[in-house]
Design brief:
Distance between the termini: 56 Å
Radius of gyration: 21 Å
Number of domains: 3
CATH topology of the largest domain: TIM Barrel
Mean pLDDT: 94
CATH architecture of the largest domain: Alpha-Beta Barrel
Order of helices and strands: EHEHHEEEHHEHEHHHEHEHEHEEEEEHH
Strand order of the largest sheet: 3-4-5-6-7-8-9-10-11-12-13-14-15
Helix content: 25-40%
């Protein structure tokens, strides 16, 4: 194909942005690094001040609002070796790189771009030894940064070593490349052969590509072709995206995204509550508003398109946001670092302004609500029908 795509790391190079604005945005990029590429920039409608691709990739002075934390999910506390996190018994995460084809302005690991090399694994043999020594680990997530920006031989070395570990059954690669830079897939036959070899030579294992399409505008003809090529290798694709204010926080956008992905054979996997990361305040949608939007989406799509889960990656575990029950919002741990929390169902007194679990003042076990409803069955019925 031979398409030349240049990467851009200086905001002053974006001529579509007025010069005065570029000067103001320099102070943002000095704090939170900027990186994009010509392909992703081409998706922006510069005549639309609310263009979602622009909001995803172009800095905003709102990022300087002092709110949030650089590590809100406390990944540091679950780091066992540099670049290896082991939070859940059967899963470990490898941070293989701290570079992406473009930096999403809402990235929950923007700290990696701010402090290059501080957290990624540089000694693959050490993390492989750790996984070998922990037979309870049956799946490994390769992430960063974007692992698909690694040179194909380096990625091949990691996959080859993981394929030798009998108790590792699933390897996931978290990547925005299909959305932000599909030519990485379209122009590297060796990468596709690597995926094919992993799946064919390891019949008891499976490779997954976890894509990050945030908006339907990212599903271009190039992106769709990249998806199809990866699918031909036997790799399974799933998508995850946070709910983002001004980008996808409406029923029609999320409905279109879920249906388009499903039609392409990509499972809508997770819709995330945007984490309370430093610089992200203007992206975060209140939990109960997002829940209402997703309930409407589910009511208008097929079961396949509506199989997504709405979750938050809390420091204590992955918590599914289930729905509303009277004056309460219901939550459930679908993954938990503490065994005592596993599968725990709990409720919080509603708070329309809540952005994260800590914003709720009252957390109660669900049985306290259900027992009160048993005493008043008519109230229980009215809640079910309301």
């Amino acid at each position: 194909m031979g398409v030349k795509i240049n990467f851009i790391t200086k905001i002053e190079k974006i001529e579509n942005i007025p010069k005065e604005e570029r000067e103001r945005l320099k102070k943002v990029t000095q704090r939170f690094p900027f990186r994009t590429n010509e392909y992703y920039l081409s998706l922006i409608d510069w005549n639309d001040p609310n263009d979602p691709i622009k909001r995803i990739s172009i800095p905003s002075e709102k990022e300087l609002i002092e709110w949030g934390d650089l590590d809100p999910s406390s990944e540091k506390s679950y780091t066992k070796l540099k670049g290896l996190e082991h939070k859940y018994t059967d899963t470990c995460i490898l941070l293989l790189t701290d570079v992406c084809a473009m930096y999403c302005r809402f990235c929950f690991r923007k700290r990696l771009f701010m402090h290059h090399g501080a957290e990624i694994t540089l000694k693959v043999d050490e993390v492989i030894s750790y996984i070998k020594a922990h037979p309870e680990i049956n799946n490994v997530l390769l992430t960063g940064g974007d692992p698909l920006l690694l040179a194909t031989p380096k990625l091949a070395m990691v996959l080859k070593e993981l394929s030798k570990i009998s108790h590792v059954r699933v390897v996931r690669i978290g990547s925005k490349i299909p959305a932000s830079y599909p030519f990485r897939i379209l122009e590297d036959q060796a990468l596709l052969e690597l995926f094919t070899d992993f799946n064919e030579k390891n019949p008891d294992k499976r490779l997954y590509l976890m894509t990050h399409f945030n908006h339907p505008k990212e599903l271009t003809s190039y992106a769709k072709e990249a998806i199809k090529l990866v699918q031909k290798t036997g790799t399974i694709l799933c998508n995850q995206t946070p709910i983002l204010r001004g980008i996808n926080d409406n029923k029609e956008t999320l409905k279109t995204l879920a249906e388009e992905l499903t039609a392409l054979g990509v499972a809508p996997y997770y819709f995330f509550q945007c984490r309370p990361v430093l610089g992200n305040r203007h992206f975060v949608v209140p939990i109960e508003k997002a829940l209402d939007i997703l309930d409407k989406v589910r009511s208008e799509v097929s079961g396949l398109a509506g199989r997504f889960r709405y979750v938050k990656s809390h420091k204590t575990g992955k918590i599914e946001i289930l729905g509303k029950w009277g004056d309460f919002v219901l939550f459930k741990y679908i993954r938990a670092a503490n065994p005592e929390y596993r599968a725990r169902l709990f409720a919080c007194k509603e708070n329309p302004e809540a952005l994260w679990l800590e914003d709720y003042e009252e957390i109660v076990p669900v049985n306290r609500i259900s027992k009160s409803l048993v005493k008043s069955p008519s109230k229980a019925l009215s809640l079910c029908l309301s």
